Amino acid sequence: MEHKLAPIRKGLLEFLVLKIVGARRVYVPDILRRLADTEFATQEGTLYPLLSKLRREELVMYEWKESDAGPPRKYYRLTEAGKAQLAALDQYWNRINGTIAAIGH
Amino acid sequence: MKRISVTVSLNRNMLQFDEAAYARLEQYLAESASLLEGDPDPQEILNDLEQAVADQCTRRMAAGQTIVTPAQLEPALAEIGAVQVPNGATASEPLAREPGPDAARPLRQISEGAVISGVCQGIARYFALDVTLLRVIAVLLLLGTGGGMIPVYLALMLLMPYAPLETGGKPLRWLPARSRRFVEFLRAKLGVERTGNIPA
What we know:
The complex is a heterodimer of chains A (105) and B (200).
Chain A: H1 2-23, H2 28-36, H3 44-56, E1 60-65, E2 73-78, H4 80-102
Antiparallel strand pairs in A: 1-2
Helix pairs in contact in A: 1-4
Chain B: E1 5-10, E2 13-18, H1 19-35, H2 42-60, E3 67-68, H3 70-80, H4 119-127, H5 131-144, H6 149-159, H7 174-190
Parallel strand pairs in B: 2-3
Antiparallel strand pairs in B: 1-2
Helix pairs in contact in B: 1-3, 2-3, 4-5
């Protein structure tokens, strides 16, 4: 069963990361913590390449912020294109959810 | 004389590593770099990972400890995890399923879409190979052996169980339908198992 569920989660991770970044400005440990107790628990090794891809697609951007310890941290937020894509994904997700609930009855 | 530690600059964080930890870190970063091959911006991700390693190791060091050992590095790397390339980031997507036998794909003839009986389709599914490739090989073997493949195919047809038919699926083509009925008739005559139900 797991081999069928894993691709679903993998496909949805990008959507969830956009949602988290869209809710407020975050840095990577915030995202990891937010997902830790969910089905979508993930690791930095997965998240950094994903955020890099989203930045290249101009859906997220980051700014450097000073931290108390160590070098400055990257704080991520959505761009206008990112907000638009999140809204579109949200809408699409609601639609397929409706389809899944309605079909087979 | 023995070298005790190596000074490492991880995304501009200076840290001391012992030899074993240094070797492991080198290996992890080299693996990450090779996984990111084809990514248009690997350096940014590698810098982020270096920062993560520095943070995780520092957090795990005891008060007064100055040298990172595998005792800090191993759990740090386990928490960071191997690099996973996101969907659509590179041209070379990994195969959706690993080639090779798999309990979820037992060796069965597949009647739907078959040319003769479904042997090639069954073997192709079992090994996660392209069925066209298998058919080409079968035809080449048929020609190359001067027809010697025919008894082999017939034997496989009789021996390989059939995958259950898809309920409500499209009707089978003429030949696969006849083959299946014929084989099932023969098996019934010989008193052997008639269809292969996929084990739960």
